[in-house]
Amino acid sequence: MSISRRNNVTVSGPADGPAVVLAHGFGCDQNMWRLIVPALAERYRVVLFDYVGSGGSDLSAWDPERYASLDGYARDVVEVCEELDLERAVFVGHSVSAMVGVLAARTAPERIGALVMVAPSPRYIDDYGYQGGFSAEDIEELLESLEANYLGWSSAMAPVIMGNPERPELGQELTNSFCATDPDIARVFARTTFLSDNREDLSSVSVPTLVLDCTEDMIAPRAVGAYVQAAVPASRLVTLNATGHCPQLSAPEATAEAILDFLRTLR
Amino acid sequence: MGRRGQGADPSGTGDDAGVDATFTALLEDSAEELYESAPCGYLSTLMDGTIARINATLLDWLGLDRAGVVGRRHFADLLTIGGKLYHETHFAPLLRMQGELRGVALEMRTAAGGKLPVLVSSVVKYGTEGEPLLIRTTVFDASDRRSYEEELLRRRRDAEQARAEAERARAEAEEARRQAEDAQRQAEADRARLADALAVLQQSLVPASLPEVPGLETAVYYHTASADRLGGDFYDLFPLDGTRWAFFLGDVCGKGPQAASLTSLTRYTLRAAALHDPEPTAALTTLNAVLHERYAAGGDPRYCTAIFGVVEPGADGRTTVRLASGGHPPALVLRADGRADYLPTPGGLLIGILPTAPIGTVETTLAPGETLLLYTDGLTEARTGPGCDQLFGEDALLAFGAGQAPASPQETVSALTKLLRGFGDGLDDDTALLALGVPAARPHTRPATNSPS
Amino acid sequence: MNPLNITRSDTASGPVLHVVGELDYDQAATFRRHVDQLVLTPGQWLVIDLTGLEFCDSSGITALLAARQHAHAAGADIALAAVPAKTMRVLTIVGLDRIFTIRPDADTA
Lengths: 267, 453, 109
Fold this sequence. Notes:
The complex is a heterotrimer. Chain A is of the alpha/beta class.
């Protein structure tokens, strides 16, 4: 199976345009970007994909060991870039994907020439002198709730109880909902996302970087955005007038505008 | 209700009036009242989640008052931390994309600090330009459902655990059975290999068949007390030159592999010695020297008894036999006239216990119809009698021989074999029999060939 | 099959082993163990009293020869006393009547 098929890669925009890779975070899939893709695709070659385990990816390729660390996701990014033979592409990562981009850019510097971090957080849990926004107990509660399948589509509970490994109901749901994930996969992704600590990695970023945060985002508060901008050498911060964790949905025009402004500075 | 007053049926009119009263009462239950006191929670939020309206049912469930919520709190604020994270990462983006969501399980936080499991459905209301205006949400109390699910899960886990334990027990039993089968197969293979080895070794102790000797008839019998034990008895018959043949029969001390090794050494020593010096005494003297050097000198005395003979068929049918014995029971001769005699070889000592051993010798002549029998003490020491507490003995053998004589070697061995079988369990030692005889003259069937021309 | 019973007594000339029972393949090892435990000095006589011997086969003969070897190794001598007629005939057949000193009874000095 090709990487493009495995990761459900879709490409739009001019084939000879500079490449922009948009990566979704924990929760949904590439549909997260659909409100800003048209604006970007006017001039840029826009590459969308789903991480293995999410959206329209090949679930049979999912490996709990590989995807128990963000390096596994970074390998997905690098493999997509390699198959498309992208050079010095701009990587736009939402939420946890911002950190995946940091790791991918370090692994394959020839593939990634700039980073856009949308609502990033290098560490969700508070630490001495660091405000991640969550206590360790908070994250533990989330993970426990996911373990017990107390969150999400209630019908996902049925196969858990009945022990149907095929989960036909869920498969149906996956095709209907962009943000529905196999509960087992979601648990691993959540653990990887919310327990990772990538603060040390920020200083290694050597490419131009745009940090986007929102005025009200409980997952990535403004203090975290500022922290990231301060830690990444060649970076600038733009705070979008948007609420929630997904400005590309709640404020798509402003988000697209900020990204396009940044892309223009790269020429 | 257009039917009012139209019906002629008194009873029908009365019923209509009752129904109308009921409907009227329901209508007084205003839409506002329905909203506030519905059996589910209702709330409406702005697109950023700010709560614009919330019904009394939900406020009651969560223990909140309206003033502290409307315009001040976001929908996500009503959720537990886990619920909030799920809302931000799944619920909100999906609602933005799809415009509606149904039956999503979330957890709300009550003012008292408890958790309220709920099922949430939301719909986005759009303006005339298609722009999203607000979100309408219904909340169902899923506590009972959660309890039921937890109970199902708990039972399922119990069942899985029981199944896993049963599976483990089955696998262990299967493994044990497999190992037992392997061990048995191995044991059978070992036994078969050992039986093959024993058969090969046994053939090195006694010849597979006796050679034809012109002018002589021969017969043998060989019995090992146990099928998986190598015998300690031995015999052989082989030519010395054109006219003379050598034969021997004996019994080594002990049983099993060590006895077999001694037997093998004995047999081949006697064969080699006889070719070097065909005198019967010389062969046994050589064997004595070999065994004494090999065993007794090393502090591990082993010995054997043996009779060694040289037979020379004569032109007149009379055959000369010269015997030497080292500690072996005397040979028996069945004469043509019906007598049976032992041929004692006094003074012959067990072979191998002293550096030089006295050897007893005897010589006799076999006439046609006469048979010489060599045997091991398995025959004379076979236990007989009702309690197997008596030995067959030399006297009984002598009497039996006299009863058979005259008899050819084959007849003699057959009769003894039958006798031995009769001993059953009493035959607890190895037994070897070797009989040599001169065929009786047969004047009635072949007078011409036997007459001198 | 009667178990072998062996007792020991001592005389001025040396130890006496009284053998009662059957000296066959199964029991000969017991006899040899008793003999091996005997400490003999040069010039002593080891006497094997066979008054109670009920049966003796080739294993028994071997055991008697081992006793003879044991005695000679210590510079001692060996005698068989009160040999039953059946055993005597066996000893004669195998020529051991001329190798062992044979005494009518154990008390004969």
